[in-house]
Amino acid sequence: MAKSKADEKILSYNDVVLRRSDLDILNGRNYLNDRIIEFYFSYLSSLFPSEDIVLVPPSIAFWIKECPDPASLKDFMEPFHFSLMKLILLPISDNSNVCMAEGGSHWSLLAFDRNSNMFVHHDSSSWCMNEYHSKQVYKVTLPYTASNANYEECPNTPKQVNGYDCGMYVLAIARVICEWYASSGTQDDADTLWFSRLEQVSPSAVSEMRKDILGLIKGLMAAPKSVA
Asked: Are 155 and 200 in contact (CB under 8 A)?
């Protein structure tokens, strides 16, 4: 039986493979899936290259949270070198079912900044839906950062105005943080971090960013393939 058009591979970017259905998600008022978030995190890693930053794929962040034996994570976590990183970004899902691929209904972002010795959680819902899940990731990740960092819910995280843009807010805030770090992150006051820049993340900006990411993917699809 032929694969459906929705499953058609349309782009391989670094280690991420996007499918036709991912374009449909971006085209409409839809909740983002793991692949789109992983793709944009990979894009940000290319846009702001640094040996001090790691943007963790959603599947890895999910397993950090849901692994039944946290002690067994040591070998799994080693390749990420969290103890050496100055900035770590982790997408948080409210999915708790390891048997359900891409489950859940809300995304948020957990950021670790070594300079301030803080984990900061950004949740675009009005009532911090992912606080429990974020704290679980914090507790498991903390020992691997070789720090005693505290946890904070960011009080001025921009709030979504609909029920589907949480993933877009994760991407928009992740980009703000990467831009902040690339420009002045190591010099800024540890108490203020990137917070003053969050005003860039408005509902209209997020709506435009959805279109921009769709255009980015289409542009990469149309780009000539390099020949080895």
From this structure: no
